[in-house]
Amino acid sequence: MRKLVHIEMIAQFPNFSPLQPTHGGRIIKTASERPPYSDHNFTSLWSWNAKGNAHVSEHNGNIIVLLNDYIDTDKKILTLIGAKNLHESIKNILSEPTNTLPKTLELVPEDVAQQLDEKCFDIIEDRASHDYIYDVKKILTYSGNKYGAKRNFVNRFKRHYPDAYCTNIDISNESNKTQILSLFVKWTSYKVSLDINHTNEFNALNSFLDHSNIFDNVICLGLYDNELLIGFAIIEIANKDYCIIHFEKADYINYVGIYPYLLQKVAELANSLGCLYINYEQDLGLAFLEKAKKSYHPDFFLKKYTVTLK
Predict the structure, then answer these.
(1) pTM score of the predicted model
(2) Phi then psi dihedrals of residue 161, to 5 deg
(3) Alpha carbon separation from 81 to 61, 89, 154, 206 (Å, rounded)
(4) Residue-wise pLDDT tens digits, 151-175
(5) CATH number attached to the domain at 17-130
(6) Which top CATH class is 132-281?
């Protein structure tokens, strides 16, 4: 049973309420009507709300979310969870008269976009926001020619680091939290040349760790070399078929092959819990993420679109 059992009322559109943990039950229920898109997942929404800027509103049985962009915090994103009275709902949202809201609806699931009338809306595929979805069984075995490089990396990792092992981490333990955040900082030091600010993700991870007691079905898998944390993956069992990797970092400079090994361990865990698919979230248009996520050969994408009024 989920811990977020109390459902607090959400303001009716055009009014908004600051996002609260007690909104989780309502958001989870509404989002469960379709596959688990990462942006509409409450764990993700709350974690990335580290500065408390996210707001929610209810309209025609749908949840409108106003949140900061993942990279550019000066940009606001408007998205819709739900698909009730779509044309009326989206028209009302995008023509809100105070002009305080963005005029583009983003992160719109494919099945929602397909229901919209192209005579009324401009609907554009948002490739950088698609969630990468992997077949658990394929990652579990890395079978076939296309996974040859991944198999080689895993075998190399096992051969070079025989003392490495995976275990679930108790993220209520302060020492474990410190180790996770320290590994994140080490990872960012490897990315300096990319000129990308990782502060938002660090804050989101820190927020998740500080509030992890409000989430259910979340597991932190730690990868250790003896007693040293060298990798972690924070995973949520989203429903009976899907798990989502919310955060994943590893010391890939000092441990060659660590990422294919860690993802295979995630697949082992997911398989043991009956999951069929891993949602590896989006690449945000970042070239290094796109290259890495494509290399695992996604089975398909949870596609997303932007919608504006014509």
Answers:
(1) 0.95
(2) -130, 70
(3) 9, 11, 39, 25
(4) 999 999 999 999 999 999 999 999 9
(5) 3.40.630
(6) alpha beta
